Amino acid sequence: RNHLQVNSLFELDSNGEITKSNIEGTEAAWMELEEAVAMTDDDLLMEYLDSSTLAPEQVIHGLQNAVRNQKILPVVFTSAEKNVGIPELMDAVAAFLPNPVDVREDALNAACASEEGKCGLTPGIEAGFAARVVHTTVDSFGSL
Hints:
Layout: E1 10-12, E2 18-20, H1 27-38, H2 42-51, H3 56-68, H4 86-96, H5 100-114
Antiparallel strand pairs: 1-2
């Protein structure tokens, strides 16, 4: 039986903070990430060009900002069937995607704009829960 090892560039410390992983073999991927993050922010880019490196904290904070500003799209390869990459996916969601409370107004405005203003909802806790559900069905032959 083949075993697949998933190496993450990040790990959580004892305080629940995101830190750079020191797993052997991830150095090249870290350098690529460092450069990609630097390209999303002028201040980080200037520092990267001056010193050819960024502090791990700068990369992590810059990555969080780049994801929230839709400049970087994280990709996590998983297989639920083989139970590979699921913890890394959950960690990535918690660490790098925006907090829903912080972006609910933007999300609601985007949803209303795509429906040509038909949603008629006002953002805020008082407005209650709103969601968009995509329904899929499987026919008798297993096709969507």
